[in-house]
Amino acid sequence: MPGKRPWKMVAGAAAISLLVAGCGGGDSDDASANSNTIVIGISEPEHLLPTNATDDSGSQVLSSLFYPLVDFNSQQEPVEVAAESITPDKANRVWTIKLKPGFTFHNGEPVTAQNYIDAWNYGAYGPNAQTGGYFFERIDGYAELNPLDPDKDGPQKAPTPKTNKLSGLEKVNDLTFTVKLSAPFSSFESVLGYSVFNPLPKAAFSAEGVIADGFEDQIIGNGPFKLKGKWEHDNEIVVEKVSDFKGQVPKIDGVTWKIYQDDQTQYADLVSGNVDVQMNIPIEALSKASADLGTRFQMSENSGFDFIGFPTYEPEFSKPEVRKAISMAINREEISDQIFLGSRIPAKSFVSPVVRGYREGICGEACEYSPAKARKLYEENGGPEEIKITYNVDGGHKAWVDATCNQIKASLGVNCTGSPEPKFSVLQQKARAHERIGLIRLGWIMDYPLMENYLGPLYSTNGSSNHYGWSNSQFDQLLKQGAQAATPQAAIKKWQQAEDILVQEMPVIPLRFSQNVYGYSEKVQNVEMNLFKRVDLYEIETIA
Amino acid sequence: MFRYIVRRLLQMILTFFGATFVVFALMFANQDDPIQALAGEKPVSDSLRAALTERYHLDEGFLTQYWYYMKGLLTGDLGKSLTGRDISEMLVDAWPVTIRLAILAILIAAAIAVTTGVYAGIRRGGLFDNGTLLMTLLLLAMPIVVLAPLAQLVFAMELRWFPATTTKDATLYELLLPAIVLATTVIATQLRVTRTSVVENLRADYVRTARAKGLAPRRVTWVHVLRNSLIPVITLIGVDLGVLMSGAIVTEEVFNIPGVGFNLARGIRTEDGPLVVGFVSVLVIIFLIVNLAVDLLYAALDPRIRYE
User: Fold this and answer.
1) Measuring CA to CA, which residue among A211, A128, A126, A210 is closest to residue A161?
2) Residue A369 has pLDDT above 80, yes or no
3) Nearest CA in chain A to B171
4) Rounded to 5 degrees, what are φ and ψ at A277?
5) Chain A residues 250-269 within an 8 A CB cutoff of chain B
6) Which domains does chain B have, with CATH numbers?
7) Domains along chain A?
8) Does the predicted model carry a pTM greater than 0.95?
9) Which of A308, A451, B49, B114 has the smallest set of CB atoms within 10 Å of its CB?
10) Where in the numbering of this chain does the Solute-binding protein family domain appear (chain A) (predicted)?
């Protein structure tokens, strides 16, 4: 454009400065293109402090930065990793944890028993508001650190705890400490595999019980990888191999955890080779994933469990026969194939196949599709004319809820509608307030591989995710007996008996077990994902 | 001129408080249970809920919460998001890339809209004019939620001309495709306004005079006509900043640009009131400043306009 007017010069100057600014930032990308490092897509972690990182992305990144006390073998039995030994006393109440010597944090501090005690105390202390705090519930002294509101949501506030130390934790020597539980629990070792039980170095604390400002952005762990630079929020987290790591050594030299807001966007990058592993291929891309990726498109089992809960306190759903009839009206196979394109497995039990003690098809007839029987049973027991399934729209549940409703309609000859709520929190609030929202769609992913991690939170009377108010004292009793049983094997027996009650009572309809649906680029091999939806960082390799 | 600017600045303060109040009220009304939203579908223990409620004053009334927010704002503290990050830090991280994207989009849009608009105006009724009118109609009809993934699929994944996504340190080239997508949301209106305005001005007395003086037709069009035709276009570009920002929410998500739109989308999804209000506050300030600048530009373009 001709002319020498000031505003044109401003525009020109802006364009030039834009060019300059643009050129400045682009150098970092290609530096590591051919080295032995990989790029894995995640979404922005909410936190990286172990006791506060309970989201998928957070615990995924932590799996590279920390070395846990125990890991799990292919039978889902705990195996000591950072711990030398973990031994209970006769009553399964006091557990002695011995650490392997010679381990250090990334800043050179040796890992000691005190590091675990400090980290756990911090996590359990109520006012620190750690999302993983409730995992310390079993340890003696938890109640004192988390005093409850005396009048429940009333005018009075919960008192400030008198102490910020768990009375159940005791240091024996530099590498040994004991954990006293408030009740015996023979399977406690499995619980210790969860990432909230990781230690924190002294450098994490600016004063006793206070995490130093900015520690989370430059977190120091005891794992095979250390943070390179800082956590670049919304952008990436780069970790590199620790040179003299004492534990199992990964085959790759580093991971760039690239942060995505959207799975579809990430898929675009996977196909164009900017991401090496995508851990969750979105449903929208499933149909073309085989064509795009070939054998690099994979599925493997994980711990996810989808189900529908009955409001058992409502009179029309109070009969187990009615609940069974609705369950029998649903063709699980058809929905898994048609809607999820085979990426989910029909569920016929109340715990996931990945835990020890799972029994295939334990749900029996009640989980088999038989419309004629279902209709007969439903009519004999006077099931309601209207069925409503409430779901949250933000989780992409509409398609299968509608399909399920259509099957119920066809099988039982009643009216069934899906009722959307904007968010899971709204759905949960209404369920807790016992509003008439009908059946509720729910899901669960385990924290540690035990039957108890399904049975306790989902079906026990005070279960943290029992949103549908089912309660059975015999079930609660069996669950407790299982926890206190002498051995993990004996515990499973009791828990299986508890599950038998669920089969009789059908408080929920088991629908599907989920799978890891993942894909990877041509640059990597031996890509495996575990039950916790995490990539196995010790096995994955780059192709030279 | 000076008095005018001072008066405008005072008005801006009022507008700022009004706007943040409205956004805060909307966010407050939309909030169901931010603590559960934060935890996803995981259970939230009672003591965690109690501690977080107290930390973020979630049990207080609307006015008290607004008061806490304003108190922080006036002392230069934007507060913390519900995930515990400093909002001022997040702003510093997010703004640069969004500003680059927006400027690039404005430049692309203005360059295309003004040149095409002028040519269409000169050749009114011709093939080129009708062609551009048809094109703008298409663009107007195409929402950005369709356009952005489509552009990504065609130009990035199939043709491989551009990278499919970008990062915080995106180069100009990496930002080009998202900027073009963003520009298309405003090009059509800008082009049509330019064209109409040029058509009108071509009939004006001063153009006839200029032609009669024997000035070269190019100079008449690009200096005399264009300068006067730009006033409505400049106004539009200023207003379009708002359109660009709302378009950025989609564009930044599709192209994974960790900017303002990206953060806003997340804040709205997780009911993170402080985060949304913090980002919108800055948006409001920028919007106000740009509009002031646009008004001042009038005087530079047309000497007949004077401010008292």
Assistant:
1) A126
2) yes
3) A22
4) -135, 125
5) 259-262, 264-266, 268-269
6) 90-301 (1.10.3720.10)
7) 68-202 (3.90.76.10), 304-515 (3.10.105.10)
8) no
9) B49
10) 78-465
